[in-house]
User: Fold this.
Amino acid sequence: MPAETQAQQTAIDHLEHLNQALDSGLFVHVREMLHHMAPADIAHILESSPPKTRQILWQLVDHAHSGEILEELGEDMKDQLISLMSPTHLAKVTAGMDTDDLAYVLRSLPDSLYRQVLQSMSVQDRTRVEQALSYPDDTAGSLMNTDTVTIRPDVNIDVVLRYLRQRGELPKATDTLYVVDHQDCLLGGVTLAQLLTYSSSTGIISIMNRQLESIPVTMTDSEVAKLFERHDWLSAPVVDDKGKLLGRITIDDVVDVIREDAEHSLMGMAGMDDAEDTFGPVLKSAGRRSLWLSLNLLTALLAASVSNLFEGTLEKFATVAILMTIVPSMGGVAGNQTLVLVIRGIALGHLGQRNTRWLIVKELLIGVLNGLLWAGLIFIAVWLWKHDVTLGLLIAGAMLVNLTAAGLAGAVIPILLKKLHIDPALAGGMVLTTVTDVVGLFAFLGLATLFLGH
Amino acid sequence: MPAETQAQQTAIDHLEHLNQALDSGLFVHVREMLHHMAPADIAHILESSPPKTRQILWQLVDHAHSGEILEELGEDMKDQLISLMSPTHLAKVTAGMDTDDLAYVLRSLPDSLYRQVLQSMSVQDRTRVEQALSYPDDTAGSLMNTDTVTIRPDVNIDVVLRYLRQRGELPKATDTLYVVDHQDCLLGGVTLAQLLTYSSSTGIISIMNRQLESIPVTMTDSEVAKLFERHDWLSAPVVDDKGKLLGRITIDDVVDVIREDAEHSLMGMAGMDDAEDTFGPVLKSAGRRSLWLSLNLLTALLAASVSNLFEGTLEKFATVAILMTIVPSMGGVAGNQTLVLVIRGIALGHLGQRNTRWLIVKELLIGVLNGLLWAGLIFIAVWLWKHDVTLGLLIAGAMLVNLTAAGLAGAVIPILLKKLHIDPALAGGMVLTTVTDVVGLFAFLGLATLFLGH
Assistant:
């Protein structure tokens, strides 16, 4: 696609030019180039650079824009760069940030630095951010901004228009003004489009949307994202349990949540942290991945100890050893398909009490069908290869058992994990592989031991 | 979290109530309940229901809302329900749809039905949709709507306000009016917020954003999504290669693209189609998953044929057979971690020519480090278990070789696949497992054959 090539070209061109300038030590030139780039594009280049280049670039960036750049970066990168900055610099940079990003930066600071930064802020900024920090991470409260524009119900559009002209610029992504009473309780909303299309004598009370849905400040951010997606909202008001307007959430922050949730699932399935920085330091990356590998080693040793139970059979029949990896492997792949489907169903909120049972039965049936199909095919393959009907029947039997178990396990494991409050995207794959390895080996080696004689 | 429970409860409550009413045959009651629900919520309930319930529900849905419900559904479900509808019904339903959704529905129809539906439409709708159909799927053209509101540069805000009041309601998610010349070429944009905050005598030409970025109609939808994410846009104008305004893309459609791309990666890694319907029919699901399982069978047979080369060793040493699954398993997990990281890097557009080499070296180094670590640990484990130093050293050597190969393969495979225009998220895992299985078995069985004597 020419369009794609063009857009990606620009970003990569920038990077190549910057790198050439860096290599030649033309730092003034680099500073000049960075000065003319949008914060989002600088963030992109920082994320695409190895650690050393990154540090140099960060020092050459215009200090006035560092806050905006920080807002655009992934968590791991944000933490890295923050650790390079002095408290006064941090306080200066954070002055212009959105409340939610500001709270994030402060949350990630060590205690002493946190106090220093807070003290170097203006009283207004400090109050604003201290409130934001009082809401738990990953809730609507931590996602919202307090920059709502509110109006009273008993005025007409003309009054609102005069107020807005006097007020000047609206906060970015404002599509709705919130109508509140004297206690700041949310009564409804009026869109900018309504203000522009109704006659100026219209009373706010007669056009405001009283059914405007509001988000409880304690709702989880994933739940907020689902509501935005389902209702195609651009922004939504956030209220406390008494209906008092606290702030608003805008779609751009929700898009970040959707992206993070998606990356969390994708990276989590491979046992990685979604904050993992592609160009992060080698030792840190290696360390982080060890937990997953150590769990896998335990699984692999467990599988080996199952094989160990059938040492006698393995000693006598080398062919059994040669074929014994096939059944666990097929079980792993089939089970993983079911697992991913069910994890997605949970994430989308599709699974209730009644349809869960239906889904488990469905996946079990698919397991049996797959089992019959692949049992037949593996029988033919082994018979053609090893000219041994008994061995073919044994591996076919084991295949049927394991693929049925895989269908059942793939459906039941994520549902059980969810009930135990363990993230299925993170733990599901490992638990599943353990089941399909153990069942697969038990079935094949067990059948071989029973029927091949001692 | 109480908030999450509450929101999910509502959806599941609805479902339970509906199911009870369906079971008791109270169809009038079900129809009444559906009548009071938002289209997005009905879509959610349809997606959460097994096939039979789904068909009954669809027949009970208010025909006036079927179009809106269709817009909210996943592709697989959309196709299922469309196949249940008559051409006249389809034509009626599609009359009120957004251009992009309408084009989708028509694209999925068989040729004869397509003509019938098109003929039952009004001339205006037909022209509109025929244009939308002329753009390839997965491009900005297929994503855009033609409901732009345009103004001329040579008027002032007062004129625009009078025009808007006369015009009435604005298309949903309108945040910007587009300024065009007599040839409909895009000159810039004026936001609703600007219209509300500037004095009414201000000329459009003096406040319009001339730097407004526009999207070429041929750009891929993933590229469009990246631009929206990076710049926090709510909407963006779409132009042809001469700069003529063709339509606009809104963030709600972009959110769907982001969600679909994410699901595509997640489901693709397990060899599933992202359109896969969680509650779809058993036979169809089983069939769809077979391709992946057949590829895996070939991989497993290839691995078995590697073991077969070392039949002599396996015959003499059953312990080798017992331990031989450990090294491939560790290689698979370690390689998959690198693979997922690199696939994400490619998806985010982070990988250029220069940093790719850096990344491959980094992942190779992590492979060596991991290799040394797990070689040490497996040596200890095997030594404690089997009291055999030689065997411990052999498996440790194989582990080092395979984890190094896994790091290298995990980084190189997705980059190579991308160059060959094969989706790395889809094919990467299978290719990687083949490499780590074959290298792992070759290394361990090869070393065992060399050093354990014949």
